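Feature request disguised as a bug report, sorry. It would help if multi-protein outputs had a clear separator. Right now it looks like this:
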Amino acid sequence: MINCNPVRVDTDGLDAVSAALRSGIVARGPNIAALERSFSQVTRVENAVAVANGTVALLLGGMVTGLTAGDTVLVAAFSFPSTANAFLALGCRVIPVDVSAMSYNIDESALVTTIRRYPEARALVVVDLFGNTEGTDGAISAARRHGLVIIEDAAQALGAHDAAGEPIGRRADVTTFSLYATKNVFGGEGGVLVSPTADIADRVRALADHQAIEVDGRRLIGLNYRMNELGAALAVSQMPKLAALVKCRRDRARQLADVCATAWQHDVLIPAEATRLDDQDAPRHVFHQFTVLASDAATRETLQERLRQRDVETRRFYPYALSALPGVTGARVPVAEDLATRCFSLPIAHSLTDIEFAAVLDAIQAVAA
């Protein structure tokens, strides 16, 4: 079976982890510092803090920007559960905002409507879903106009850029990234938070290391939210290759788009960004996933099953909208709910061999709904 997200560590990664083990420094060492420097270079944001994982980065981002129990937080309705769970864990009132069927990202008009409905909202969590930033600029501008704290969940979007060609990490109060095993750059687990505000980063660093701080007159108690040296070493070994990894994924997205358009015609809608790929120096989409939208749920089921029979794994990212999570309240989000019933992701990872990826393309060509 060709895995949708195979995890493969190359020689550089193995050597980096081995060196970290031989050094005897497996926590609070040079690889953490190197990882933070590399994120600052990629995002062009000076203040970067490595933490245990992407969910922790969101949690800490909410804490240091003053969010607390009872605060209303608006979140993109289609995402991994951590986008909402991190703020539910703070006791916040989490309200989902519907998304665009084209980009799967937050819909600006839906956001404006939601802000009017919940004028007490304190923050917006915007998501660059599947590594795509399309449509997020307008949502962030709308949130700024209404004075909301902006937290950007860029877990899947390391190396992506906004509409102005700026790297993701510079436009929000807090931007968080994940280094989970399936991400474009991975450390097994791990996360990084960046912020244009040095004080925010300092507060995160303190809370991640058992220190107590004050935010808006409230005393917050830190815990152990640190990342370890081994995961950092593994991630650092991949950072110089980020541009090449993104190019590989974008090249593969172009091929997948061409094959899907020919083989499946009206049965699926392919990602809009995949239809206009070029050799951008500042890509809007880094294709953590290549997600297509089937014409209906039955078609999705048929295509997934026929690909499985040809030993090609596909995945449903995500099988439900965040409105389905316990604790999330607010109005219905019909677009996100519909996407959850029809979308599925095809193998695109740079860790796939050329032979494996060619087999994926062949399988798509051989499968008809």
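(second protein starts here, but nothing in the output says so)
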Amino acid sequence: MNTDAASAPFIEVENLRVFLPTGDKSEIEAVHRVDLVVRDGERVGLVGESGSGKSVTGRAIAGLLPTSPRVRVSGSIRIAGREMVGAPREAWDEVRRSHVGMIFQDPLTFLNPTMRVGDQVAESIPRSREGDRTQAVHGFLRQAGLEDAPRVAASFPHELSGGMRQRALIAIAIAKLPSLVIADEPTTALDATVQARVLKTLDETVSQLKTSLVLISHDLAVVAGMTDRLYVMYSGRIVEEGPTEQVLQDPQHPYTKALLRSVRSLTAPGVELYSISPQLRRELAEAMTDA
């Protein structure tokens, strides 16, 4: 992992706000005044419970929010020094093609069911790269932990296991040789053994490419061993940020403390599972209103 705090920011997010439409023609502020930095080669964790705004933040950084006039984004997202808020679709396409690889939590949703996996990996390989594209596809599949690359390349997504589909998404993401990989809950719905394999693959691949990583997760155990710095989100806001080890060992915010207590209760046999109380949620909501 990269611990050089002086390295240049590759992603700079300032005062990011994202408004999403609701079913009753109103809107909600899913992300509220978020500031976030990812330096070259750095691994950053974005953690929080479901609905905290972390996935929306990740999709905003990748320019993958729904294209609708009712989806509003304000603030600043600079990628490699280029301002992207308000940029046209063509500019976002170029940034994703050149810089950003995305790994989603549900591979069956994001893999094309009518295309063989190898063709989907090949689509991500820059046209400027010379050489045998079949060999390149097999190489990226192997790099993503799929040893039987020819068979996987010839398969359709439904013919693979959940863990293999997730690693296929990793292969697609890295085939463009991105400067940044955003992994949004990459181990959701996988059993513990497969989770460990997928995370090991992601860890090794990011190290080999020397790329930056934004790892989005609700699981503190996942981000603990794979990130340099950690952002904790609650109710659309960043409530705590710092070096991962520092945040986990000496949390300052009540919500971070509650998240850690929830995890630690699982390691103590016979201890009742801890949950965040309604009273704490009310206190947090009041603190957010006053901020």
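Even a blank line would do. Unrelated, but nice: The mean pLDDT is 88.
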